[in-house]
Amino acid sequence: MGPLFRPRPRFRPDFSLATVNIVLLLLLYFLVVGDPADPEERAIMPPTTRDLPLDGLPRPLLVAGSEEALALDGAAVSLADLRDRIASGTLPRVHLLIGRDHPARAVLDLVGALSAAGAEIRMVTLRSATSREADR
Fold first, then answer.
1. How many CB atoms neighbour CB 72 within 10 A?
2. Nearest-CA neighbor of 122 among 99, 89, 82, 95?
3. Does residue 60 contact residue 73 with C-beta atoms inside 8 Å?
């Protein structure tokens, strides 16, 4: 019997490079194709506030106008007076109606001041006639 030869080492291909290439190609594909969501789905239109009867809206309704003008149920009121009424417990909840062009920082400051005084804040939004027709 002759000597046994060692078997030749088998060639084992390395698939890591191919896997990385496939992942990068998929990533590139999804970047080129874009988002699965339509741009219309991502568009956010803030509600529109116009001259409206305040009778059908929830009470107490705080309307914030321009330049820190506040009106509670149609009567002008100051922020200090609101804080006092909230702290005394006569105004535990406030429904807040603000126009779409009101500065966001002013809205956050107002909500923060009312919340710090202990009030529950609820935002009131209105739909325009055109958005109601689009929903149907």
1. 18
2. 95
3. yes
Mean pLDDT over each residue of the chain, to the nearest integer: 81
Kindly report the backbone phi and psi dihedral angles of residue 97, in degrees, each rounded to the nearest multiple of 5, phi listed first: -120, 120
Which residues have CB under 8 Å from 47's CB, separation 6+? Answer: 100, 125, 126, 127, 128
pLDDT tens across 52-72, in order?
666 778 889 998 887 778 999
**Tokens describing residue 31:** 């970047």
Cα separation, 60 vs 94, whole angstroms: 6
* Cα→Cα distances 13→9, 16, 52, 102, Å: 12, 9, 74, 64
Side chain identity at residue 108, one-letter code:
L
- Read off φ and ψ for residue 18, nearest 5 degrees: -65, -40
